[in-house]
Amino acid sequence: MSGKEAKAVVPKLRFPEFRDAGAWEVKRLGEIVDITGGGTPSRKNQDFWEGDIPWVSSSDISEDFVKEISITRFITPGAIQKSATKLIPKNSILLVSRVGVGKLAITRKPICTSQDFTNLTPHKYNELFLAYYLKSISHVFESFNQGMAIKGFTKEDVESLTLALPDVKSEEQQKIAHCLSSLDEVIGLQAKKVQALKQHKKGLMQQLFPA
Predict the structure, then answer these.
(1) What does pTM read for this prediction?
(2) For 1-11, how does the pLDDT look when each residue is reduced to its tens digit (9 = 90+)?
(3) How many CB atoms lie under 10 A from the CB of residue 183?
(4) Strand order in the sheet with 33-36
(5) Cys-Cys crosslink for 23: which of 9, 136, 140, 181, Cβ 3.0 to 4.6 Å?
(6) The CATH number of the domain where 124 resides is what?
(7) Which domain holds residue 56?
């Protein structure tokens, strides 16, 4: 895939049970998702930031994992009413469109985001499948350059982006999503083991040498 066009409608690698399932259909992203922006409630009004509705900025999204969101800030319904932020439905894709362009994550609960996001709520396609697909073409998002001070992309860029997609009624998208999600789980477990080993090494170094 390059720019806004999907050059291939059949993936290079396909699970055996889907090799005779035919070509994927090319569609515009705007046809298969609802697109919603975000905003930041006034920080001068502390009451806005004392609610229970999760609110995230681009720094809360992981570079590596599509299921990881660090939620540390919460806002009130009044903050939503009096700002540009919106409540994004669960199972939506939070796509960073400025300041960290291309990072994304799936939210499993209703959530609000800053203006640095273009949020995608799939109609029928599996959100995990779409998240991995969009992650695989992050270079396309990075190529968009809007504005002088802040690089990013617009809602129109996202709407016109074309993707080759399997039949929505087949299980191919779910199979792909499960495969990649399983790999992420293994990577996450290994990362925790590496971190534990680093801490163990640090402790040994503090004890094996005189202070």
Answers:
(1) 0.86
(2) 444 444 558 89
(3) 10
(4) 33-36, 117-122, 92-96, 104-107
(5) 9
(6) 3.90.220.20
(7) 16-208
